[in-house]
Amino acid sequence: MARKKKIKIPKIAAVDLFCGAGGLTHGLLDESIVVKAGFDVDPVCEYAYEYNNDVPYIIKDVSKLTGKEIKDYFDDSEITVIAGCAPCQPFSKYTQGKDNTEDSKWGMLYEFARLVKQVKPDIVTMENVPQLKRHEVYTDFEKALKKLGYNINSTIAYCPDYGIPQTRHRLVLLASRHGEIKLLDPIITDPKKYKTVKETIEHLPTIRHGRKSEDDPLHMASSLSELNMKRMKASRPNGSWLDWDKKLVTPCHRKPERKTYRSVYGRMSWEEPSPTITTQFTGFGNGRFGHPEQHRALSLREGALLQTFPADYQFVAPDQPIYTKHVAKMIGNAVPVKLGQIIGASIRKHIEYLYSQAASA
Ligand SMILES: C[S@@+](CC[C@H](N)C(=O)[O-])C[C@H]1O[C@@H](n2cnc3c(N)ncnc32)[C@H](O)[C@@H]1O
Q1: Domains of the chain: which residue ranges?
Q2: 0.85 exceeded by pTM
């Protein structure tokens, strides 16, 4: 029987816009995509990005970045990718000019489109919250890419379907100048097989609220007030403050219309994926962020593991103080590493298909 010919694929090179602490970059690297540089304005993420990925972190406002600078990083790379996860914060140019509503939150997408136009990479990928899809700024982004000749596919990915222990939904856009491209199909189709909180964090040492593990300074949990400790003790996994004694319920939740806010001050369940890890996950009152058994909110390390960062991912230099707010922001803002890897694998599959077609032509 004739052996299948192995197709040699050239190196795929990427730059990561709005790279943060490197969740997306790390996932792309896991698929052997060579990330040439990450761009971000926030100096706080520099250490985590460079230490864990060995990729230069360029502190730069993307609205001031030029296509030429990106091209210089690509140098003579054969396959090029611009990846990014535009922030949802107001962008002055558009808040002043267009509108001051939801659309203006994603103004940086216009800058992303400008850079795609200047660089014309082979592949573009953008990750964001699903609600972005309803906004004009997103339609404008797709229109700009179509005009440049890209084939576009967008998917709302449900993270547990991809082996991520977290019920996060994310919009993933993939676009190629060379034909159809799409996100890989889900790898887990039976919800009973979703990766759970237990499988992800149960092995970590027990810690008390306000304390940290001796082995890992990032396995640290915020302190609880006396009242919140009583609430924590009265909380059961997947329950809500409706289970508590009335004395413990906050005055604002006592109002009948607040009954819908059930997932704040909640404990997560061992047996399911966690809720979406936001930038606020270290606070018990900010969501269902209570540990399933211990009387405390999630530690920084637990949040990072639920975001599928490797167990040894470092967020702060050893000689620097750990500010919970800073680290929780890097973790909650990140693209789950595993989703980044799935995006990388989707790009790789697309390129391999193109090369196999060319080889058999
Ligand atoms: C959602 S986070 C990106 C997370 C990152 N992709 C990851 O996977 O870890 C958005 C990032 O955009 C950065 N940012 C906000 N405005 C920016 C700008 N004008 N230029 C460059 N970066 C910006 C923020 O500092 C933040 O790190």
Answers
A1: 12-190+336-355
A2: yes
- 131-141 confidence digits (pLDDT tens): 999 899 999 99
108 alpha carbon – ligand 1 mean position (Å):
10
Tell me how far the alpha carbon of residue 41 lies from the centroid of ligand 1, in angstroms: 7
Instruction: Say how many C-beta atoms besides its own lie within 10 A of residue 97's C-beta.
Output: 11
Ligand 1 centroid – CA 40 distance (Å)? 5
Residue 287: phi and psi, rounded to 5, are: 165, -165
CATH topology of domain 12-190+336-355: Rossmann fold (3.40.50)
Question: Residue 307 in contact with residue 301, Cβ under 8 Å?
Answer: no
Mind telling me the catalytic residues?
A: 88
Residue identifier of the C-alpha nearest atom 6 of ligand 1: 19
Residues with a CB atom less than 6 Å from ligand 1 = 18-24, 39-42, 45, 61-63, 85, 87, 108, 333-335
Q: What is the pLDDT of residues 38-89, one digit of tens each?
A: 999 999 999 999 999 999 999 999 999 999 999 999 998 999 999 999 887 6
* Alpha carbon 325 to its chain's center: 17
Q: Best substitution site from 39, 41, 279 to test ligand 1's pocket, by max atoms within 8 Å of Cβ?
A: 41
Find the radius of gyration of the CA atoms of the chain. 22
Long-range contacts of 186-192 (CB under 8 A, 24+ apart): 186/158, 186/161, 186/162, 187/161, 187/162, 187/163, 188/160, 188/161, 188/162, 188/163, 189/161, 191/160
Question: Would you say 233 and 245 are in contact if contact means Cβ atoms under 8 Å apart?
Answer: no
